[in-house]
Design goal:
The longest helix has 43 residues. This protein has three helices and five strands; from the N terminus they run ααβββββα. The protein is of the alpha+beta class. The protein folds into two domains: 56 residues; 90 residues, Roll (SH3 type barrels), CATH 2.30.30. Strands 4-3-2-1-5 form a five-stranded antiparallel beta sheet. The N and C termini lie far apart (79 Å).
């Protein structure tokens, strides 16, 4: 498709003669570009920055005894925490590896805690729902008895 034909499809398109006199095409284009940049920021850049901040916070909060998985797939337990690096133990023979903090992909200990909290919250919600349903069922039985006695 020709760019000129595409521009003529929009009101005030600059593809033909007198494009700026027809209704402010430059301002419309600027508004559209700014809008598209805004949408790109909120759908792509902002979530990525949020993820990076969460990952950095996870790496900064590593402590001795945490189970981690590196971005290369090595699993181990943190033995020593230094400013730039950490030392982990891996395997049954307790091989020690020194890695940089940015190589940590997942803190398994924190994930297990978060999963346990989610499971507990889900169970509490299910218990509350079951209790509410049993209360409503018992109130229905009482109302049926009252209706049956009135007739």
């Amino acid at each position: 498709m020709n760019f000129g034909l595409l521009m003529n499809m929009f009101p005030g398109g600059g593809g033909g003669s007198g494009g700026t006199a027809q209704g402010g095409s430059p301002t419309t284009m600027v508004i559209m570009i700014v809008g598209m940049l805004g949408v790109m920021y909120f759908t792509m850049i902002r979530p990525q920055r949020k993820r990076q901040k969460e990952e950095q916070a996870m790496r900064d909060n590593l402590s001795i005894g945490d189970e981690i998985t590196t971005i290369g797939g090595i699993m181990g337990r943190v033995v020593t925490v230094k400013e730039d690096s950490i030392i982990i133990e891996t395997g049954a023979d307790r091989t020690k590896l020194r890695i940089i903090r940015t190589a940590v992909g997942v803190n398994n200990t924190n994930q297990e805690k978060a999963q346990a909290e989610q499971d507990a919250a889900k169970k509490a919600a299910e218990d509350a729902r079951a209790e509410k349903m049993s209360e409503s069922a018992s109130s229905r039985k009482k109302s049926k008895k009252n209706k049956g006695g009135d007739e």
